[in-house]
Every structure is written in structure tokens, then in C-alpha cells.
Amino acid sequence: GNQLSLGLEAPFTSSVLQEDSEIASGMQNNLIQLRSEEIRRGVTLIGPHRDDFRFIMSGFDLGVFGSRGQGRTAVLSLKFAEMEWMYHRSGDWPILLLDEVLAELDLQRRSDLLNRLYDADQVIVTTTDKGMIPDQFTRRARIWQVIGGTLKANSRG
Fold first, then answer.
1. Assigned domain for 26 exists
2. Do residues 6 and 43 share a domain?
3. Against a cut of 0.70, is the pTM above it?
4. Containing domain of residue 103, as a range?
5. Are residues 56 and 5 in the same domain?
6. Cα separation, 134 vs 105, whole angstroms
7. For 114-125, b where at least 16 C-beta lie within 10 A, e where not — what string?
8. Quick check: is 22 in a domain?
């Protein structure tokens, strides 16, 4: 397949470059100010998980012109970049949780994703269709099933 470049546009700009400590202090102040409102509403109001991103591939906004698989691939690419950044910053690999992502990917993207997971230290993948995960991957995995609302360990693969 063709390799396409992937760009990211965040919907915010900063007119002033700030040091990490200034950004952290500002975030902490906002968290303190909004804490009671977040508790009252039962939802977080600020943080990077609340940001909206637009992924641009070959000049086109994937949210508008991309397929669901392309959009999912872009999000997964961002997650892997985030994992690498966290690893290089802390020296520890984060745990990666992928909830039902395989069903939205074509066979090639699914294979690419699973091959990429070998680099991660600990990964949790959920699926309702174990057949989507190739044998070479499940042989190296610990498989758990939810049966009747109870989590049960299966033998490997």
C-alpha cells in the first residue's frame, strides 16, 4: 500500500510560549477551581482528553473525507506516539488498552496493529470475536473471557 503522511491540527493556539512548569501550574489551578463543579456534574471539564483533534491526511480532514478505518488508524497512530513519548519521558511503558478496535479495521490494518503491539510492554485488547486475532498473536497472550458476567481465565490461545 501507499504510505501517506499524517498531520495533526489542534484547535488551539498560544500567542506565548510557556515553560512546562508554567503550563503545569496553570493546569493545576484550573483543576482546583473546577473540582467542585466536576464532582457536582460527575464529569471532567478540563484536560487533554477533552481536546478535539482534526487529523489531516494528504490535505484532507479525515473526520470529513476519511473512512472509519482511516480515522481509527489515525487515532491509533497518535496513541502509539503518545506511548513512545511516555516511555522516553519516564523509562516505563504505559499499559495500552484497546477496546474493540479490531472490528473497525481492514485485514491489513488489523495485522499492522497487532504486529505493532509486540513492541509494547503490556497490552489489553478486548473483542467480541476472538477469530479476529490471529493464532500467532493469541499464542503469546493470556486469554480471559466474560461468561455470564464472570471473568474467567482460559488457557493460552
1. yes
2. yes
3. no
4. 91-157
5. yes
6. 14
7. beebeebeebeb
8. yes
Count of structural domains within the chain? 2
Angstrom distance (rounded) from CA 83 to CA 99: 16
CA–CA gap between residue 98 and residue 34 (Å, rounded): 30
Tell me if 46 sits within 8 A of 12, measured CB to CB.
no
CATH number at residue 104: 3.40.50.300
Q: What is the pLDDT along the chain (157 residues), one digit of tens a residue?
A: 445 566 656 666 666 667 778 878 888 898 899 999 999 999 988 877 777 777 888 888 888 888 888 888 888 888 888 899 999 999 999 999 999 888 888 888 888 888 888 878 889 999 988 888 888 888 888 889 998 999 999 865 5
Long-range contacts of range 71-78, CB-CB < 8 Å, 24 or more positions apart? 72/101, 72/104, 72/105, 72/109, 73/105, 73/109, 74/6, 76/101, 76/113, 77/6, 78/8, 78/53
Q: Is residue 12 part of a domain?
A: yes
- Angle, alpha carbons 15-20-22 (nearest 5°): 65
For residue 71, with 0-12 CB atoms within 10 Å meaning exposed, 13-18 middle and 19 or more buried, which class applies? middle
* 73 belongs to a structural domain: no
